[in-house]
Amino acid sequence: MVFLSFKSKDTSKNFTNHLSTALNQAGFPTFEGGDHEESRRGEEINLELPNKAIQESKMCIIVFSQTYASSSWCLDQLVAILEHKMKFACMILPIFHHVDPSNLRKHKEILEKH
């Protein structure tokens, strides 16, 4: 199984849907862990299902978009993915969707100062 982590508002109607469809058609079942935070306001977030899917995945694809890090749902998934990688060496593929990877380095420098 391939786990997809993404910010729904940024990518679900275009890039992520096409990626998921292509992976499924190629014989790689996917679990979409998009945040859908707009539909969850006021509800207690249950990470059990995505965490189970992450643990069962051989590969995790993280679609970093402009607002990915603004979602606590996405960040919780990212932590679970990295913990899974440390324990079971699953493959992680980062995709930068309309984001320059060098922008992440700049944020790291800012965070290190604090």
Descriptive report:
The structure is a single chain. 50% of the residues lie in helices and 18% in strands. The chain has one domain: Rossmann fold, CATH 3.40.50.10140. It is globular. The chain has a four-stranded parallel β-sheet with strand order 2-1-3-4, sandwiched between helices. The chain is of the alpha/beta class and 114 residues long. The protein is built from four helices and four strands. Mean pLDDT is 79; it is low at 38-45 and 109-114.
Whole-number total of structural domains? 1
Question: What is the beta-strand fraction?
Answer: 15-25%
CATH architecture label: 3-Layer(aba) Sandwich
Low-confidence stretches: 38-45, 109-114
Structural class: alpha/beta
Superfamily at the CATH H level? Toll/interleukin-1 receptor homology (TIR) domain
- CA radius of gyration is 14 Å
**Adjacency order of strands in the biggest sheet:** 2-1-3-4
Categorize the overall geometry: globular
Summed over residues and divided by their number, the pLDDT gives a mean of 79
Note the main sheet: 4 strands, parallel
Quote the distance from N terminus to C terminus: 38 Å
Q: Secondary-structure element order, as H and E?
A: EHEHEHEH
**CATH fold assignment:** Rossmann fold
Q: How many DSSP helices?
A: 4
At the first level of CATH, what is the class? Alpha Beta
Please tally the β strands and state the result. 4
In short:
With 114 residues, this protein is of the alpha/beta class. It is 50% helix and 18% strand. The chain has four helices and four strands.
Mind sketching the topology for me?
Layout: E1 2-6, H1 8-25, E2 30-32, H2 48-56, E3 59-64, H3 72-88, E4 91-96, H4 101-113
Helix pairs in contact: 2-3
InterPro entries: TIR_dom, Toll_tir_struct_dom_sf
Protein name: TIR domain-containing protein
Domain TIR: 1-114
